[in-house]
Amino acid sequence: MLKKLKRRYLAVQIDCAGEFGQKEFMDAVWGSLSKLYGEYGASRSGLAPIHYDEERGLAVLRTLHDEVQNVRAALAAVTRIDGKPAALHVMAVSGTIKALREK
Predict the structure, then answer these.
(1) 56-89: b or e for each residue (b if 16 or more CB lie within 10 Å)?
(2) Domains of the chain by residue range
(3) pLDDT of 53-70, one tens digit each?
(4) Cα–chain-centroid distance for residue 38?
(5) Which CATH class is domain 17-102?
(6) DSSP state, 44?
(7) How far apart are CA 97 and CA 95, in angstroms?
(8) CA-CA-CA-CA torsion for 53, 33, 80, 82, nearest 10 degrees?
(9) pTM of the predicted model as reported, rounded to 2 decimal places
(10) Cα–Cα distance between 63 and 79 in angstroms, integer?
């Protein structure tokens, strides 16, 4: 019997001097995950972008609930996005997008 995957949504604040797109942001996050946990560990995270707002510097990411701590560590380890200095801060974690927006 297959068990249902529990997911968590992370609201991420992006502090960066330059401008970049969603692809560059996700490349930086995946690169950080791969460096910390290898290809296998990164693939286990189930990481996916849900929303990206370049103007406000906000992103919503989806991951598996077992991997939230690993993804948070990888986000904290990001220091550059597209060659520009950057810092990522997790503002909130929630089980649903609706509850995340309320937070």
Answers:
(1) ebebbbbbbeebbebbbebbeebeebeeeebebe
(2) 17-102
(3) 999 999 999 999 999 999
(4) 16
(5) alpha beta
(6) H
(7) 7
(8) -60
(9) 0.91
(10) 21
